[in-house]
Design a protein that fits this description.
The protein is mainly alpha-helical. It has one domain: Arp2/3 complex 21 kDa subunit ARPC3. The chain has six helices and two strands. Helix 3 runs antiparallel to helix 4. It is globular, with a radius of gyration of 17 Å. About 35% of the residues are buried.
Length: about 190
């Protein structure tokens, strides 16, 4: 018989571990500037957040993502200052990717290349739409960027989000496959 408290404890522990991994990756200065617009950076913070989805469930992944976003909003010496606006954008981007992947996970029960491709397509589609709308609305409010300039950089923002989604999903999926072999778990 499975003790429900043991299951809850395992989920809570794994959620905390994936949150800590994402926070550590966010704090470390390992971002790569996006070549077309260096204010945007490619990172791997989303990888443990997607692993939380693959290995645990959607609520755990959301909790890990929001926790990471809260930490991004705070000062992170010695590497990074507080960044509440960046935290908002990062949290929204990662949540939209997670929701897109979760939708495929609910529909596609097999853990194979098609799952990876559909996850990437839906995750990047949802993230790109959400982030283009968010940037259109909030860049002028948060940073005073004129709407005309925001509109001109939306294609770059879209491409960035597609690339970032590919990095996150590819690394998370490959990590998941390696973990799955050792722990006999499945999506």
């Amino acid at each position: 018989m499975v003790n429900i408290n043991d299951v809850k404890a395992k989920k809570l522990t794994l959620t905390a571990i994936f949150s800590a991994m994402a926070i550590s990756l966010e704090i470390l200065p390992i971002d790569i500037p996006f070549p077309m617009f260096s204010k945007l950076t490619i990172d791997i913070t989303g990888v443990p957040l997607l692993l939380a989805l693959y290995i645990i469930d959607l609520p755990s992944s959301i909790i890990a993502t929001v926790t990471t976003g809260i930490i991004i909003a705070l000062p992170r010496p010695p590497f990074k200052p507080s960044n509440p606006y960046g935290a908002f954008f990062k949290t929204l981007a990662e949540l939209s990717t997670i929701i897109g992947v979760w939708m495929i996970k609910k529909l596609w029960k097999k853990d194979n290349k098609k799952f990876f491709i559909y996850s990437f397509l839906n995750g990047s589609f949802i993230r790109t739409i959400v982030m283009c709308i968010a940037n259109y609305i909030f860049l002028p409010i948060f940073y005073g960027v004129p709407v005309k300039i925001v509109i001109s950089i939306l294609p770059i923002i879209a491409l960035f989000n597609i690339v970032q989604t590919l990095v996150n999903i590819l690394l998370a999926y490959l990590s998941y496959k390696a973990i799955k072999k050792r722990l006999s778990i499945s999506i």
